[in-house]
Here is the input.
Amino acid sequence: MANATNSAAASGQRSNKFRHVYGEPAKQEQQFIDLNNPLTSGEGQYVSANNKFVAVSKASGGGPVYILDINKPGRLSADLPLLSVQKGKVWDHDFHPFIPNMIATASDDSTVAVTQFPITGLSEDITKADVMLQGHTKKVTACKFNPSANSILASASFDRTVKLWNIETQDNVMTFSDSKDNIYSIEWNFDGSQLASTGKDKMLRIFDPRIPDEAAAVKAFDGTKSSKAFWLPNLGWLGAVGFDKMARRSISFWDLKDLSKPLFNTVIDQVASTLIPHYDNDTGLLFLAGKGDGAITYSEVINDGKVWYPLGAYRTPEPQKGGGWMAKRACDVWKCEINRFFKLTKTAVIPISFNVPRKSGAEVFQDDIYPDTFAGKPALTADEWLNGANKDPVLCSMDPSQSSDNGDGGATFTKKKTYQELQKENEALQLRVKELEEKLSKYETVEPQDDSKADE
Here is the structure.
């Protein structure tokens, strides 16, 4: 997990590498334009991405979601195939971290669906999910896959619960019900051993879903507007953005060793739009995208007296209605791209690259700005994790000369039968055995015919 950049940040040293980072929007031919009726209302991001695809929620019944190939931008046709496997709007989605062509969707109809689609993308509408997870009683607003363990998924609902699922068995293995109001966000930590949640009850909660009775809770913000949590693994901190009692946007950090009070908190500004945080553990940079304004700010977070060092901002007049971040391993290292944000507008998805200016970047791999990053391969099986094992995510080199990975993650999905399905099968088998036994008993009770009487 450690690298030179984040080790320096943890020891209180600033890096000079990222002080001149700049945002660069894709040219129009590299944008996804003529996007029809995307979902933009509410507090969600409505966009998720991995190393191959971008998903965007559509605002209509049937829970439709666009699945766009990252490498095939351009004008979108009116009859573009959709993934539509639920009855209500899809408020959130998350790609499987180890299977790039599988996605979880959280719906207004209180279900969470997990669906696999062709690795080449959608050629026709998909209307049937591989797994349908039922148990929430109100709309589901968030879903997040575990970053280390295969097939472990968390979901949060307006029924004020967080549920943990094993998607292979479709089992709801845990329900966390400490929240006193609607839940705004859930986030896994670096090794997937803990979840953090924020909610309308103004509390920030941290818990291991395998032992939810040991949850810790601290007051996060005085305001009731949307707040979102994020982890800072290299510093051993937890952060959150939200609003104070004067409805000003605020940011706070807590040291996981002492949650009694924030080690840092400050007012950011008086803008009304909610913030979408993204902390890049590889570089130590925190990106904040305003949902409803046109700014994406970036800053360094350092373990020193000042803590938070704003570096700059990418600004446009057109506000973002949502957005999501691409998997780091798909960045273009020859352009010194360290992150890419897919900005959602009313009619388009616009890729915005965040680059480090380097004179020799197009010819020589810049290993000082590209430490090993998340590889998209599972470190644990679902059963290993559920039995208490923890392990950091598998990492890979960003150096193209050292990478032989084709980006498919190497994991496979095997749907196991549920207990109810096995029970039904067992009942059917028992019924069949009973039928056969009854037939056999009839044959055994028939008296044999006397051959001498038959001759007469």
Observations:
- Residues 190 and 233 are 6 Å apart (CA to CA).
- Residues 419-445 form the longest helix (27 residues).
- The chain is about 10% helix and 35% strand.
- The helical segments are 4-10, 382-386, 419-445, 451-455.
